[in-house]
Amino acid sequence: IAFITETWLKPKGDEGIVSQLRPDGYAKPLNFARTTGQSGGGICVIHREPLDMQCTALTTMTHFECCQYKLFINGRSLLLICIYRPPPSSKN
Which range is the signal sequence, renumbered to this chain (predicted)? Predict the structure, then answer.
């Protein structure tokens, strides 16, 4: 499982780049791009195909970016969270 930050990917139009991030045997990368219209930032999640992972909702944050997953393995679940705080700027 890889969480990649500062992807600079957009919600629409960068699907070709996202698909190139996918190594053989891995599921389609999940792109969490900024939706505020700002450039930069973003989180991408890449995991092996057979893993049972489920995205779970988080409250929208204004000062950092995050995504949360539940990984189901051997009848148990493990919560995985990626938090990325961009460098200070006039916006944050």
Answer: none
